[in-house]
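ok new one. same drill as before - structure tokens go in, u give me an amino acid for every spot. 217 of them this time. try not to just spam alanines like last time pls lmao
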């Protein structure tokens, strides 16, 4: 096992590649999925740092919704600077919608971030409780919040909680990567791709991550 792979991650990755050799080339190019270390990293954090990581893990997908990575990273940097380097419920609430709009965020993103901040600050959403829920329960709870849909929940499950069976069929990059890898003439719809999760379970997260990387080949 390499130094960068979490316990269990190496065996899951090896098993996935043996079942899906079509991903071997992209693995050789991109290396090991970065999300595999997420869950192990959370275990090493104290309570305050864990809450901060969980909150940031929910905030960042909101910024990235429906935007290119380049534009989203610019907004993320601006918002982080405005918050003094830390995205927290209190700092976002103190900024308010007008300041967020001045930074370039849309009205819907500002509303979603403020709604999330209010839920966490009030205690209605206990971030640590998400760690104990299964993937479906986490997704259902997050989708109760305004502006957070399945895509945001999937990104949180994958990159913050390090869950191993996350499939993101609505993600445009996943759809494009799937079409390229399997040499399809037409881009599969989110509905069509949703039916493919069973094909990759219980390691659908690895497929999701590598399908993004397929586009870099």
């Amino acid at each position: 096992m390499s130094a960068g792979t979490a316990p269990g991650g190496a065996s899951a990755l090896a098993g996935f590649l043996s079942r899906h050799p079509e991903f071997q080339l992209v693995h050789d190019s991109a290396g090991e999925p970065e999300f595999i270390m997420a869950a192990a990293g959370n275990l090493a954090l104290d309570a305050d740092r864990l809450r901060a990581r969980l909150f940031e893990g929910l905030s960042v997908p909101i910024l990235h919704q429906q935007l290119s990575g380049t534009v989203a990273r610019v907004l993320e940097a601006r918002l982080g600077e405005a918050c003094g380097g830390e995205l927290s419920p209190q700092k976002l609430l103190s900024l308010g919608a007008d300041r967020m709009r001045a930074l370039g965020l849309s009205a819907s993103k500002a509303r979603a971030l403020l709604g999330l901040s209010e839920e966490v600050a009030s205690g209605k959403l206990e971030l640590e409780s998400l760690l104990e829920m299964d993937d479906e329960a986490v997704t259902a709870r997050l989708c109760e919040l305004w502006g957070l849909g399945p895509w945001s929940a999937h990104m949180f499950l994958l990159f913050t909680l390090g869950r191993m069976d996350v499939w993101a069929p609505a993600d445009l990059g996943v759809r494009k990567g799937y079409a390229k890898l399997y040499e399809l003439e037409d881009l599969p719809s989110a509905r069509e791709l949703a039916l493919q999760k069973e094909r990759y379970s219980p390691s659908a997260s690895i497929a999701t991550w590598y399908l993004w990387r397929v586009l870099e080949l």
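Residues 47-64 form the longest helix (18 residues). and btw Confidence is low (pLDDT under 50) at residues 1-7.
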